[in-house]
Amino acid sequence: MRLRKYAKLSFGLLVTVTITSISASEITFAIVGKTKNDSFYEQSYKGCLEVAKRYSDLNCAYDGADDYQDVRTQVLVVRELIDKGVDGIIVSTTDSTFLTNGALMYAKERGIPVITFDSDLLPEHQNYRLAYVGTNNFDFGVALGNAANKLKKHEQDTICIQSGHQTTPNLNARIAGVRYALANDAKRKLDGRFGWREIDRCPLFTLGRREDALDQLMNFVDDKKPPLFLAVAGFAQFNPRYIAQLQPYEKRIAHGELRIVSADTEVIQLDALAKGLGSINLGQKPFEMGMVSTELLYNFIQHGIKPEKEQYYLDYHYCHSKNADTCADNH
Question: Which of 296, 317, 316, 315 is nearest to 132 (CA)?
């Protein structure tokens, strides 16, 4: 580890920063997901590695909260990376206020640029990042809601939305999008006015804990008329026990008696979908999120080129049992 002194453009200002880096000829970007043990964020890290193949001076690091969406651990991880001397941070926001106050203000003081991916900061905090790369999460929620509408079984139907952390910006935007699609009102809980009602104990929040997420789903599967279960991220389907637990309900899913709509199309989810153990999945592009974020950050640090846009939105794809083998690319 050596001290390196160089001129860096920081949020549009030319400043001189002294940091500790791996070597004088290398730069390091850190990919920080909401959780570390998540194939979605691992794909984003692989996207960074793909870009690093083109630049001999670029290294990628990967970190995050170990087991679930822990806002305090995410802050500690980011601060530790700053102290280690990374040159840039690419982070998926769990709690915008906590992350900004606890770590991103510190990054800005140190002249370390930040790009958010997957989950952006709230508008009032966005001056602490250069740009956002990922899904337009409100539109993604609308698409999830439209998928649910295709599975509507009753004139007055019920739904349960499953989310992660209550303060996570991208997941809350998706919930708003679902409600807008089903009732033309993004802010109001579904109350039956447009044929959809959220059951009283929903939305459910998992904090990204896979055991809790699967347990929450299994609480409904034996109901005579279960609500449509809509997860705004992978959650239950990321649990390695999902396929075994849902196997006895394959016929109920095939007949539309049990309806499961989920965001994301990781390998473990597509395996379940191909076996008929889900209804519809909408997938994002985490690998591309990592690539685009890395390229933007590299151009900013090495060439002083600030991102042209505030948001770089990527598209998404639709998967069901018949196209589960071909609908998505996983890396």
Answer: 296
pTM over 0.70, yes/no: yes
Residue (of 128, 203, 120, 117) closest to 160 by Cα position: 203
Q: Domain 137-283 is classified in which CATH homologous superfamily?
A: Response regulator (3.40.50.2300)
Tokens of 291: 């690539």
The CATH number of 2-136+285-315, from 3.10.150.10, 3.40.50.2300, 1.10.760.10, 2.40.50.140, is 3.40.50.2300
Q: What tens digit of pLDDT does each residue of 57-85 get?
A: 999 999 999 878 899 999 999 999 999 99
Query: Helix/strand/coil (H, E, C) string of 172-229?
Result: HHHHHHHHHHHHCCCCCCCECCCCEEECCCCCEECCCCHHHHHHHHHCCCCCCCCCEE
